């Protein structure tokens, strides 16, 4: 996962001094990775030891390792297409600007979500789903919509899927899980009480838990066996989980496509499902 993504996700939890370093790095990562720890300390008004402690708080052994991660993150950065504006939508924005900002935000979230998940984690998730006896998907609110959609896709591949929008039924279903089963739990915050309780129940029954959450530290990813992440530019005051939902859908679609690629009979099963449904459309 990109160090810049991690910094963005955790910035609200930083101290005032750490936040100054974080904001400097995020504002100009190309310059930051070329600076010494002493130079970065001077530029941010912090001590050199404070810079090193900031790096260690992010999980790096020292400043040099942090610099390398920032360098790699800038090299892997996805450019936003020309003409697309990425930013917060204001009430005073014109119709055209609103469209540009919305599209830019969606593109940015999907691109960053793809970058946030390494191949190793994705392969572990694919192996767990592909070999599971049963797959239960859970989520509340917007995450529930994504869970339902992903469940439909997995059913086309022949998976035995359990999904219900009612959280009481979800937790009851989790009590029937076992070591050969997988629970996929979706929650952008990673703090939805219902989803946490269901995941805890699944773990207690020996099922493997795959979490799909935001990149910020959260309880759901902490208790999961396999952690996948979505990146979204959700404001604290928001009318709906717009970009987080899109990022979750993109990640679910990626998992589905990768499963199709590794399952020899998948295309035949998908075609059979489409043919069965087509008679209802004539």
What can you see in these coordinates?
- By secondary structure, this protein is α/β, with parallel strands linked by helices.
- It has two domains: 3-75, Winged helix-like DNA-binding domain superfamily/Winged helix DNA-binding domain (Arc Repressor Mutant, subunit A, Orthogonal Bundle); 117-278, 3-Layer(aba) Sandwich (Rossmann fold), CATH 3.40.50.10490.
- 58% of the residues lie in helices and 8% in strands.
- It has helices at 3-10, 16-27, 29-32, 37-44, 48-57, 63-75, 95-116, 119-131, 142-156, 167-174, 193-204, 219-223, 242-262, 266-278, and strands spanning 135-138, 161-162, 182-186, 208-214, 226-230.
- It has a five-stranded parallel beta sheet with strand order 2-1-3-4-5, with helices on both faces.
- Helix 2 (16-27) crosses helix 4 (37-44) and helix 10 (167-174) packs parallel to helix 11 (193-204).
- The longest helix is centred in the middle third of the chain and has 22 residues, at 95-116.
In short:
This protein is α/β, with parallel strands linked by helices and 282 residues long. The protein has helices spanning 3-10, 16-27, 29-32, 37-44, 48-57, 63-75, 95-116, 119-131, 142-156, 167-174, 193-204, 219-223, 242-262, 266-278; strands at 135-138, 161-162, 182-186, 208-214, 226-230. The protein folds into 2 domains: 3-75, Winged helix-like DNA-binding domain superfamily/Winged helix DNA-binding domain (Arc Repressor Mutant, subunit A, Orthogonal Bundle), CATH 1.10.10.10; 117-278, Rossmann fold.
